[in-house]
Design a protein that fits this description.
This protein has eight helices and nine strands. By secondary structure, it is α/β, with parallel strands linked by helices. The model has no long low-confidence stretch (mean pLDDT 96). The structure holds S-adenosylmethionine.
Length: 228
Amino acid sequence: MLNIDIISVQPKMFEGFLTESIVSRAVAKGACSIRTVDLKEYGIGRWRKTDDKPYGGGPGMLMRCEPWFAAVESCLAASSSVKPPRVVLTSPAGKKFTQRDAEDLATAEHIVFMCGHYEGFDARVETLATDIYSVGDFVMTGGEIAATAMTDAVVRLLPGVLGGGAAATASESFGREGMLEFPQYTHPPEFRGMKVPEVLLSGDHAKIEAWRMCEARRITAERRPDLV
Ligand SMILES: C[S@@+](CC[C@H](N)C(=O)[O-])C[C@H]1O[C@@H](n2cnc3c(N)ncnc32)[C@H](O)[C@@H]1O
């Protein structure tokens, strides 16, 4: 089973995600466990301080080392993982997270996500991480949405979580063929003059498969030429 710890100064941000999503069903099915850890519990002094001004000047506050080292080390000390745990630090300056990275993390037994805030982390905190990931070329106020996105992408790959199993994820965007997904249609066969392509109603599976491959190539070339 995959155990996930998410460390954050705003652990309440995960409440909806952990109770309403497919991830909550994965937890109920025993595919994974997800625990949020309040970084403030490891904060410094009476006020549980987790941030301070940057040396050398500059705007905003940085997250201090001591709470992060204490929190991550406490998660690792409690780990029952046989494989080396993965410690994922969220950062817009990280490697861009992809489906391959989700597949890789889905083979782990223990993942610790580190959600930054303010201007980010004191650089020494990065020495705790096995992986530093960005979820895109934009800057958010905190790492919670990034950790949520990565957790979702990983958990849906765990055996037994999705109805269609491995086949369901292999034929998706960024799946087996490394392309975007082909267009899909459901009822009705015609809506406001827009018809479902004839071939999908033909029952000819070879033709349908060929059309889907062709459409996947077309859409990938149009929207993500970098993948072609
Ligand atoms: C305001 S950001 C810090 C940005 C940092 N000063 C920089 O320029 O790279 C605060 C935190 O949000 C999270 N974050 C923001 N954007 C992110 C992204 N695209 N991917 C992953 N984490 C992100 C990280 O945890 C980061 O430490």
